[in-house]
Amino acid sequence: GQNIDQPTEMTATEGAIVQINCTYQTSGFNGLFWYQQHAGEAPTFLSYNVLDGLEEKGRFSSFLSRSKGYSYLLLKELQMKDSASYLCAVLDSNYQLIWGAGTKLIIKP
Amino acid sequence: GAVVSQHPSRVICKSGTSVKIECRSLDFQATTMFWYRQFPKKSLMLMATSNEGSKATYEQGVEKDKFLINHASLTLSTLTVTSAHPEDSSFYICSARDLGAYNEQFFGPGTRLTVL
Fold this sequence. Notes:
Radius of gyration of chain B: 13 Å
Largest sheet of chain A: 6 strands, mixed
Number of helices of chain B: 0
Helix content of chain B: under 10%
Shape of chain A: globular
Order of helices and strands of chain B: EEEEEEEEEEE
Radius of gyration of chain A: 13 Å
Distance between the termini of chain B: 37 Å
Structural class of chain B: mainly beta
Shape of chain B: globular
Number of strands of chain A: 11
Helix content of chain A: under 10%
Strand content of chain A: over 45%
Largest sheet of chain B: 7 strands, mixed
Number of strands of chain B: 11
Structural class of chain A: mainly beta
Order of helices and strands of chain A: EEEEEEEEEEE
Oligomer: heterodimer
């Protein structure tokens, strides 16, 4: 079966750095996405990785290792508005998104 | 960037009535649209994949006669929840994939359905 694992909840302090991990086992791989979702809203795109390595975009970076079936999202200089759920999703061989359950990130002052 | 709209954003209806939700790609053509449902504090659950001009493909456990999907044009897909019941209350989100862009889905803002 297809499976994506990420921690249920994480807590971090404003101004700090946090890393959210995601491991996956899917039938085929056509890329991995990270989305941010605030409560009551639809997901918004953060990043897309299809090759191994680190992609940096402002305060957010995403890393992928295809051989390990592993990715992480790194958030720097945390702000209160970063409090949200972060969803890891893998595009499988049928170009269908397989979703993780999401990681709720709580930012404390 | 690509924009997807949904209408209505919020709907409250009585049990037994039907509700139609529209999903539109505003500035691109979407051959494929996806319908998701999300219960509170749960992840997105794919309900069905809708391809323009053909029948939708439903995920296991999703009743196709209850959740009617129509994708009559490259910019519009509709989801009709028939004979809605309180357990159908949820957040329904659509996404659209641009023609030829298999690695990207653009999400609508979602529709909050409450069935009394």
